[in-house]
């Protein structure tokens, strides 16, 4: 009997001695943190979670590495923002574009570069520009100041500046000009000193309607006479070192109106011209100050 009882007890305890099954591993946390390829492994897992989302497990498993790469490129091409226009970049790489101002000084350009549409000020001094055309400033309504000092400009199309309604300051100093183009109506400063401009190169109405013009610099040219119809708004008139030989009572004043006073003029310079100002006393009767020049 004792032998039977011992056998039964042994049979009851045998199942309890079987080894426990191996633990299940979490595949998503099975990264080798101590290895260099951790970031690559993590990126691969994130890619599978994000870019293969919505596919069945069978579809995910059937994608080869090359197919995964193509899928990633396809998805990235969809999510990238649209490419911006870069037509203005060459100018702003050659020059300096800053807050509506374009600085193209001493960069050896021979033509006006394409300007950003919002440009208000262009400084293109000391280059090799020979000609200005209306196309150079087409659709540029915000321009307020243009400076082409020290170029090689010989010719300017008549309508080059007339379509710039906001242009206030224009410098064409130190060029090779023989004549002046049509000027915009809101100019306050015009500088064309050190050119080759003759009196026949200035039309009779060039300055007549410029009712805001305050500063006029035409010194060091080849003018034989003072330009006609100078506006009442002028404060400074520089005509020194030309070829002016005579003036009349109507040059600055009004011969038929002795009460007329040109009270805004602060300075007229006529030195360096072959004219004796003392021979024309009635020509300055309307001025508060006599012009600078020779009176003897």
Automatic annotation (TrEMBL):
The family line of this record is: Belongs to the small leucine-rich proteoglycan (SLRP) family. SLRP class III subfamily.
Identify the keywords attached in UniProt to this record, alphabetized.
Answer: Disulfide bond, Extracellular matrix, Glycoprotein, Growth factor, Leucine-rich repeat, Proteoglycan, Repeat, Secreted, Signal
The record, for Pfam families, names: LRR_8 (PF13855)
| Location(s) in or outside the cell | Secreted, Extracellular space, Extracellular matrix
Asked whether the keyword Signal is assigned, the reply is yes
Query: In terms of domain of life, where is this protein from?
Result: Eukaryota
Leader sequence range is 1-19
Q: Where is the segment annotated Disordered?
A: 56-86
Q: Which InterPro entries match?
A: Leu-rich_rpt, Leu-rich_rpt_typical-subtyp, LRR_dom_sf, Mimecan/Epiphycan/Opticin
Q: Name one GO cellular component term.
A: extracellular matrix
Write the protein's name.
Mimecan
Described function: Induces bone formation in conjunction with TGF-beta-1 or TGF-beta-2.
């Amino acid at each position: 009997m004792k032998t039977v009882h011992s056998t039964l007890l042994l049979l009851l305890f045998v199942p309890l001695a079987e080894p426990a099954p191996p633990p299940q591993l979490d595949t998503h946390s099975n990264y080798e943190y101590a290895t260099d390829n951790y970031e690559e492994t993590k990126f691969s897992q994130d890619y599978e979670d994000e870019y293969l989302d919505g596919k069945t497990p069978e579809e995910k498993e059937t994608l080869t590495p090359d197919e995964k790469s193509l899928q990633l490129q396809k998805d990235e091409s969809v999510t990238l923002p649209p490419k911006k226009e870069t037509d203005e970049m060459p100018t702003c790489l050659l020059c300096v574009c800053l807050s509506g101002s374009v600085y193209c000084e001493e960069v050896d350009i021979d033509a006006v570069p394409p300007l950003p549409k919002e440009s208000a000020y262009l400084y293109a001094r000391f280059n090799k520009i020979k000609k200005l055309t209306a196309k150079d400033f087409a659709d540029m309504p915000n321009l307020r100041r243009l400076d082409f000092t020290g170029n090689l400009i010989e010719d300017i199309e008549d309508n080059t500046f007339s379509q710039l309604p906001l242009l206030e300051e224009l410098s064409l100093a130190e060029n090779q000009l023989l004549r002046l183009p049509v000027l915009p109506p809101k100019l306050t400063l015009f500088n064309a000193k050190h050119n080759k401009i003759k009196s026949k190169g200035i039309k009779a109405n060039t300055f007549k309607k410029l009712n805001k013009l305050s500063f006029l610099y035409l010194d060091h040219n080849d003018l034989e006479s003072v330009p006609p119809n100078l506006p009442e708004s002028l404060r400074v008139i520089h005509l020194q070192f030309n070829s002016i030989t005579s003036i009349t009572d109507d040059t600055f004043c009004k011969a038929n109106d002795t009460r007329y006073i040109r009270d805004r003029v602060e300075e007229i310079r006529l030195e360096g011209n072959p004219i004796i100002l003392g021979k024309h006393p009635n020509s300055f009767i309307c001025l508060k100050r006599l012009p600078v020049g020779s009176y003897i």
